[in-house]
Design brief:
13 strands; single chain; 2 domains; six-stranded parallel sheet; alpha/beta; Rossmann fold; 376 residues; elongated; 13 helices; seven-stranded parallel sheet
Length: 376
């Protein structure tokens, strides 16, 4: 198959999943064409069967906001006609599914039928998509897709409750390449914890929805009772406030703000506990990454997180904003090495259920059905 992939080329979960899926499909012998405004961060265009087509948006004085959807639709049409694309997989309803529908209509006039698979990832439904300015377009785009998938049962439920959807929605969870985390569990920790402290970690884009102040507050309570350091990995609007909060609490020397880094696997490898108190998470890919690195997770019970994190086995679930529970469960694990070791192994075993060799074939099967339907 020749598959066109449209995604956001960023560090966010949807972009990572779209890129990793494309890479794996290329390894399976399919020809993958990424269509987006910049090269996805995890994409190596020198790998066999992988191609990148850049969407160029030209400045024009008439427009206050440049028409990316128009440029994207045109690039989709051009790529399909030039490369002979069989199927288009778009990640995120806005603007990708909408632009794909326009491309499909243009191609129909040229006698080309292009099946479209749309994967919903989260904020395109739970946040942006619900806005009155976008809701009609989101609803229309989803219903006009040939196949629709979501990354969790929770997101499917949110989609069906927020929009009038006539299409069947299939749940295909996010996945992970376990081999990336299959490293020596005794990796060197001294750079981050020179005095043998326990290592607590968090990774995100540091937006308000991640509830960053809860992490700093919970860690403050944890480090009061046991020697520990906190790794804050990522960048975003809440980062500066978190730094000030750590200073105000007198723990800035125990909190390491590491920004964006390509050393995610290495940092998780040396961690003992992962905190993810988000207000909402459609799936929680970063929690899965932690679990694959044998790191138990204390997360909120929001969105799709309970579908991944098993309370009392791979970590603990707490109500959104319950900092005391986060600290209590954190200390329960960090102060009991035997229990921590048990949870580490449980987390790893749970992550195996979301390995790419189990999930990628589910997408491949959807592609095959879409192609068969288009040939009827």
């Amino acid at each position: 198959m020749k598959i066109g992939v449209v995604c956001y080329p960023t560090f966010g979960g949807s972009g990572v999943v779209a890129t990793e899926l494309g890479i794996q499909m290329a390894k399976n012998g399919h020809e993958i064409h990424f269509i987006t405004y910049s090269q996805p961060v995890r994409l190596d265009i020198l790998e066999p069967n992988i191609f990148y087509h850049e969407v160029n948006v030209h400045d024009y004085p008439l427009f206050t906001y440049q028409p990316y959807e128009l440029a994207l639709s045109s690039k989709m049409v051009d790529t399909v006609l030039t490369e002979g694309i069989d199927i288009l997989h778009v990640h995120y309803a806005i603007p990708h599914a909408y632009a794909a529908y326009m491309a499909k209509q243009i191609l129909l006039e040229k006698g080309v039928y292009l099946p479209i698979v749309t994967t919903l990832h989260g904020t395109d439904i739970t946040l942006v998509g619900k806005h009155p300015s976008y809701k009609p377009a989101v609803t229309f785009s989803i219903n006009q897709s040939d196949f629709v998938t979501t990354v969790s049962k929770s997101l499917k439920k949110d989609t069906l409750s927020s929009f009038v959807i006539k299409k069947e929605i299939e749940v295909i969870p996010n996945f992970i390449d376990i081999k990336l985390y299959d490293k020596d569990p005794l990796c060197d920790r001294t750079q981050m914890a020179p005095n043998g402290e326990k290592i607590v970690a968090h990774i995100s884009n540091m937006r308000k929805v991640k509830r960053i102040p809860n992490i700093i507050e919970a860690f403050y309570k944890i480090q009061e009772a046991t020697p520990a350091v906190l790794l804050m990995i990522g960048e975003g609007p809440e980062c500066e406030l978190a730094e000030q909060q750590a200073k105000d609490l007198g723990i800035f020397h125990r909190v390491k703000f590491l920004g964006k880094t390509s050393e995610i696997e290495r940092l998780l490898c040396m961690s003992d506990l992962f905190l993810l108190p988000s207000e909402t998470e459609s799936f929680g890919l970063v929690a899965l990454e932690a679990m694959a690195a044998r790191v138990p997770v204390i997360s909120s019970n929001a969105g799709g997180l309970p579908e991944l994190n098993v309370h009392g086995k791979t970590g603990y679930l707490v109500d959104v904003g319950d900092v005391n529970a986060m600290a209590k469960y954190g200390l329960k694990l960090l102060q009991d090495d035997a229990l921590l070791s048990e949870f580490k192994e449980n987390a790893y075993q749970r992550s195996l259920e979301f390995s790419l060799d189990k999930v990628v074939p589910m997408y491949e099967e959807v592609y095959q059905r879409a192609l068969r339907q288009s040939r009827k």
